[in-house]
Amino acid sequence: MIESGFYIDMKDFDKKFNNLMKNVIPEHGDKGAFNAMNRLLEDAITKPPQAPKDIGDLWGSRIVKKAKREGKESFTEGGFNIKYARRHHEVEPGTFKYTISAKCKQPGPKFLESKMAQFKEKYGEIIAETIRKMSK
């Protein structure tokens, strides 16, 4: 007990802060990761070098799964139809006969990884902004 000055009871703050750090931020971070993955796939379609679109509908085959949590780790899966991508874009040129769209440059394999490296700060900002907005 303090004999002089003033005293602030921080028990309620500590309880709420711990809940915020253990539950709220990770949950909102999961939503932010989902939003960032959606932006990554959008960037793969709209920002050169773009995801391939020769035949079929690779762009329309994109998928983002809800974030999964394993202990303190969280991850989000997303991408394009892997069978289509592997068959048409991650093989040696000339292996399959298909036409090349004049609209898009062939980015080659790992086009999503290159977008992640190119725009990593932007995707981090999307996660942070989602946490900020949802925590109000």
Structural class of the secondary elements?
A: mainly alpha
As laid out across the biggest beta sheet, the strand order is: 1-4
Which spans have pLDDT < 50 for at least 5 consecutive residues?
A: none
Radius of gyration equals 22 Å
Number of helices: 4
Number of strands: 4
Give the termini distance in whole angstroms.
34 Å
Largest sheet: 2 strands, antiparallel
Percent of residues in helices comes to 40-55%
Counted up, domains total 1
Q: Give me the strand/helix succession.
A: HEEEEHHH
Verbal overview:
With 136 residues, the protein is mostly helical. The chain has one domain (11-134). It is built from four helices and four strands. It has helices at residues 11-46, 82-89, 111-118, 120-134, and strands at residues 63-64, 68-70, 73-75, 78-79. Strand 2 (68-70) and strand 3 form a beta hairpin.
